[in-house]
Amino acid sequence: MLNNLGLEHYLVLSAILFAIGLYGTLAKRNAIIILMCIELMLNAVNITLVAFSRYVTPELLTGQIFAIFVIIVAAAEIAMGVAIILAIYRGIESIDATKINLMKW
Amino acid sequence: MGLAIGFWISASVIIAAALGVVLLRNIFRAALSLILCFLMVAGIYITLSADFLAAVQILVYVGAISVLIILAIMMTREVQRGNLSNKLQLPAFIVALLFLGVLVLTVTNTPWPITDTAPVVPTTTTIASRLFGEGGFILPVEIAAALLLSAILGAIVLAREK
Questions:
Q1: ipTM score of the complex?
Q2: What is the pLDDT of residues B81-104, one digit of tens each?
Q3: Domain spans of chain A, in order of start
Q4: Which of B83, B115, B144 sits opposite A56 (nearest CB)?
Q5: Alpha helical stretches, state H, chain A
Q6: Which three-class secondary structure state does DSSP give residue B45?
Q7: Given B26, B60, B83, which residue is the final one in a domain?
Q8: B72 in contact with A, Cβ within 8 Å
Q9: B53 contact residues in A (CB cutoff 8 A)
Q10: pLDDT, tens digit (0-9, with 9 covering 90-100), for B36-74
């Protein structure tokens, strides 16, 4: 059990990581912490993709290529997210996600 | 045996560091904990014999994304207020716990079609031929380039002083 690594070990690890990221995204006030938790969830998805690529189709590597694209999108997302957070901070002097209600009806 | 030791060390540090991101009071320490988590995910990639992805993970996540996050923490003055939670703390915990339970149940009860083929080592040649070769992913690569360019331009436009 401890010595034989299987696909399930990696999937359970990524499920735990995704659940932690989901909790942080839903329950935190600071917009930067929310961005960090989104990165945690993207990493969990990447672990799943690479684990499937290793155990189900080891010679095709399609999962690793998908993981590369996820990393590209994550880099674009974090750049845009930080720019939006800084723009909001310049406007209302706070990045508390519960106080950002400019677009609320 | 060595793979198993590496996996268990990486996995326990990943979960502890991810909990640190959510639970630590100091936002800056939460960001450092996130960087540790990224590093250990690279270790997980190495146990999955994905050497190129481990290098990309360290370059992009540990090198670039963490710098952006720390820059954002430095530019805003929310650090003194700490890592607060909103009113949804208990519902969010229940939702995350239910989601985790459903995922673990499905993952452990599904018969996955696992093959015993040895993994490709090193992976760079195969990844390159899959990305750029015949019948590969060349169109998504071009779209990714356009996406990155538009993200950079959009970030500059948004963050520029008026």
A1: 0.91
A2: 777 888 888 999 999 999 999 999
A3: 2-92
A4: B115
A5: 7-27, 31-55, 62-92
A6: helix
A7: B83
A8: yes
A9: 46, 50, 64, 67-68
A10: 999 999 999 999 999 999 999 999 999 999 999 999 999
Last residue of a domain, one of B50, B67, B83: B83
Q: How far is CA B159 from CA A6, B72, B130, in A?
A: 45, 11, 37
> What architecture does CATH give domain A2-92?
Orthogonal Bundle (1.10)
Contact yes or no for B96 and A26 at CB 8 A = yes
Query: Do B7 and B68 sit in the same domain of this protein?
Result: yes
Q: Are residues B77 and B132 in the same domain?
A: no
Contacts of B94 (CB under 8 A, 6+ apart): none
More confident residue, B76 or B95: B95
Among A26, A32, A47, select the one facing B27 at the smallest CB separation: A32
**A86: closest chain B residue by CA:** B159
Query: Which residue positions in chain A have pLDDT lower than 50?
Result: none
Tokens of B77: 């003055």
pTM for the model stands at 0.92
So what's the pLDDT on residue A105? Answer: 67
The total number of structural domains in chain B stands at: 2
Domain, as residue range, for B30:
1-83
The predicted structure's pLDDT at residue A50: 94
Question: How buried is B157 (Cβ within 10 angstroms: 0-12 exposed, 13-18 middle, 19+ buried)?
Answer: exposed
Contact: B41, A46; criterion CB under 8 Å: yes
Residue B142 lies in a domain: yes
